[in-house]
């Protein structure tokens, strides 16, 4: 029998419960006229943020520094043939600079979301 190994590399380690993230995400989401249980279907993470895809066709962006969750609303680009996700999100991928997020669903639709980071000066 082999013993479990600790992976030293990687950004996805849970040192503490992610309760600040999970408390900001609803347990149910509206799909048309009905409320559906929200289930996470995909995840991508960097040292600064975590992005979660859901069965309702939405993505949630969590800033690890500020503990703020943003509901991503992709905008249709001029090359988008169809609408936004109508089925569960199954894949997420960030661009190298972290400014673009590509999400794919179970119907094969890929949505491009450009992150608009606005600097707020207080």
Automatic annotation (TrEMBL):
Coiled coil: none annotated. One of its GO terms (biological process) is protein exit from endoplasmic reticulum. InterPro entries: WD40/YVTN_repeat-like_dom_sf (IPR015943), WD40_repeat_dom_sf (IPR036322). Gene3D superfamilies: YVTN repeat-like/Quinoprotein amine dehydrogenase. One of its GO terms (cellular component) is cytoplasm. This is Uncharacterized protein.
């Amino acid at each position: 029998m082999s013993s479990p190994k600790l992976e030293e590399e990687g950004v996805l380690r849970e040192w503490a419960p992610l309760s600040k993230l999970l408390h900001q995400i609803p347990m149910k989401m509206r799909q048309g006229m009905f409320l559906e249980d929200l289930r996470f279907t995909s995840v991508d993470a960097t040292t600064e943020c975590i992005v979660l895809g859901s069965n309702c066709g939405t993505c949630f962006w969590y800033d690890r520094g500020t503990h703020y969750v943003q509901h991503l609303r992709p905008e249709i680009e001029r090359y988008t043939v169809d609408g936004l996700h109508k089925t569960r999100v199954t894949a997420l991928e960030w661009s190298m600079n972290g400014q673009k997020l590509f999400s794919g669903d179970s119907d094969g639709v890929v949505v491009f979301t450009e992150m608009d980071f606005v600097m707020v000066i207080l």
